[in-house]
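Example 3.2
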Amino acid sequence: MDLRVTIIQTELHWQDAVANRQMFAEKLAAAAPETDLIVLPEMFTTGFSMDAPALAEQPEGDTLQWMREEAAKYNAVITGSIIVQENEQYYNRLYWVRPDGSYAHYNKKHLFRMAKEHHTYTSGSERLTVELKGWKICPLVCYDLRFPVWSRNTADRYDVLLYVANWPKVRSLAWRTLLQARAIENIAYAVGVNRIGTDGNNHPYSGDSAIIHPKGHKLLETSEQEGIHTITLSKQELLDFREAFPAHLDADDFKLNS
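Structure, written as tokens:
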């Protein structure tokens, strides 16, 4: 079965969750996408902020409730990361919210030390794999993209590798290159959703959101423009390619200690 993926590339209101939720709701209402999966950027309610004490939500706070409402409205999964406080710790937490209101979450594993993210947030320790319409999907967050071992597809555990990000323009070449590499090496579709505009720390973002075919070519490539894009992924194309080019059968065995 094919999978329809909708990505939203946009500017974000700096540290204003109410404004960002309203903005995304209006964009979705205007586009009214017929889709299976809606993907928002990293920290989509605030921008990439280290002011967790002022901005963090509880695990089942306002944004999760909003995501439940939007998922039900469009009969689609909605995903993206926000700042969450739980057990006196802060997390850069991705939520995977289904139309029936159930959800799963992933806490960002690799924290961006150049912005001192590791001084504010607690690192996650478990990767998440979820299922949607017969597809297995592994959602990760931004800086995780730089670490191929964490992203590695062992025993075809996933069909789609998904990254939500606030990836600055100054490193856009790395973003574009690594997304293609992850698709090729894992024989899986790679979806990367990034923001545009300038944040409250004066860091510019060029977007460059993309969807990459397992062979490495781009099914969708954006620039710095706002937009909502829906792309249909073919499961049969993925299976046919894995059968014709089964490089995964020669992959090295390894085990993560964490």
